[in-house]
Amino acid sequence: MGEISTRTAAEDVGGPTFGLEKFLDPLPLPPVLRPRGGFPVLEVRATTIRERLHGRLPKTVLWAYDGYFPGPTIEVGRGRRLRVAWTNDLVGTMPLVAVRVPQPAPGTPPADSPLNRPGYPRHPDGSPAEGAALIEGVAEIPPWLVTHLHGADANAGSDGWAHNAVLPGHSQLAEYPNRQPAAGLWYHDHAMAVTRWNVHAGLFGSYWIREEAERALGLPGGEREIPLVICDRNLDTDLDGNLTGRLLFKVGAVGDALVPFSGPLTLVNGRIWPHLEVEPEAYRFRVVNTSNSRFYRLALVDADGDSENALVHQIGTDAGLLPRPAPLPADGLVLAPAERADLVVDFGAHRVRGRSLRLTNTAADAPPEPDVLEFRVQDRAGSGGFRLPRALPSEPVRFAHLPGEHDQVWVALVPPGTAGMAHPRLWELRELDPGEVPPLPEEGVVQVTDPRTARTRTFHRVAELFDDTVSVFIEHGGLVEWNFISFGGPAHPMHIHLVRFQVLARRAFAPDFDLGTGGTRSPAAGFTEVPLEPFELGPKDTAVVHGGEWVSVLGRFGESTGQFMYHCHILDHEDEGMMRPFVVHPEEVARFHPHRGGHGPGSYRGAP
After folding, report:
1. DSSP string covering 314-374, please?
2. Is 396 inside a domain boundary?
3. Domain tally for the chain?
4. 149 and 64, same structural domain?
5. How many angstroms separate the first and last alpha carbons of the chain?
6. Does 395 fall in a domain?
7. Mind listing the pLDDT tens digit for each residue in 24-79?
8. CA distance 30 to 226
9. Which of 88, 89, 112, 477 is a good FRET partner for 393, with 20 to 30 A between their CA atoms?
């Protein structure tokens, strides 16, 4: 067996592949855990491991579930209750170097951005140079973990509350009823203020719920059903410019604000630019974007760069199957952080046999090397027996006639710089009665001219940071419309814990927002309906809200209860304050619960 090189020539580090050969390594497949028995119990241990992210790299220190990066795929049947002991057996402190460098000027091409290169400027003694600086305190962070099963309908005690993290030697006990329809969920760390680094260190994995209606479809399975867990990373270099394999969390700095992490290296199932040999048959790929902040626009192309998207159909999204298969958009499928896509790719077409195809990122801000994964189609005849179902047993959150009496939650997403705050913010809003004066009229007041009624509605901020008073209270079984209105700034993938929701509407507008005072100069108006993409017609748990958009989603909170969270799933935004709690409790209890402000029937009782 040949010796694996652990050095990369310094003169090659500046190129788009940094001296690493693309498609060198076969795609790894995480092990599958299928709990057995009437009421199974699993122990999943977080451990410190050393793993090669590429066959020509030194080993990287990672934090990983059960010793795998990503963690094992947990597979359960619908309605089969499962208990998991998430045990913290980690050693050492945070296994990455966190550095801030000056943010590139607007319009800098991705290939020229220092954020899209390994390493960071150093003096001969190894200290940061040219405006770079270590982010203080990150290297000393201990292993403090709490696991969230993203997309799960589980009671709050099992949801992975951000403050309920545990240190090494302790376990977090969780129970998952798995009542919901078949879907591809995922699990990841959710510890308060350090989620971005814990996930970056390797703490995530897939979780699939199965059911008979799904099995009856005859979809590709066994060796032809494959997880594609995608993320981006950066790596450090030594003083000679050689890649060391050490994780580098390098971000841009604008004053006191840190721009969310995005890296130049794309990993699938823990390998940089791997390849997969496939038969000329149909395959099912369960795709999840676990990146901190990077959006992908995924497209299938041949060796000449010509589109082969016609081979791909999407059959499911975050929380389950679509009503019917949807073709891949001509310019590719956009996946925001935390979003999932259930794809069927038919490699049986005669024109692709014996050829290589590439899954690539066609987004405008893709890294200098945009390729993600290579498929090597075997040169032989396939069975040709697969037929894509015309309809799927989807269970979306659909309502032919939206009832007039339903709860509403209003959330403003405000841009960086609002009222002097460096980072974007999430404001919970309370609608004021006509003639009511807000407690702080000089700031935190936004107005919206609702196109459904032509009525101007006035809202006041009632909460902003995670530890502000809880203001959203939802009655168990309640139907709730969440309204996310962005008054500018970056796109935010908004995730609501616990609930499967349906995207109702996406409306674009031109914000007239005053950063200085923190409020609208004139009511948000002139809304234009944005057609929903086919994948938005299925059940979701994460919805992207772009700057200058109002996105409404609808969900029924009909099973679990307790205190949960919702947040932007750009992990840096989440850790920097874009996360808030909400409570789901029985109506019979709600009428006796004294609290101030908020949302939901009776939630204003006792308010001044």
Report:
1. EEEETTEEEEEEEEPPTT-EEE-TT-EEEEEEETT-GGGTT-EEEEEE--TT--SS-EEEE
2. no
3. 3
4. yes
5. 76
6. no
7. 999 999 999 999 888 899 999 999 999 999 999 999 999 999 999 999 999 999 99
8. 9
9. 477
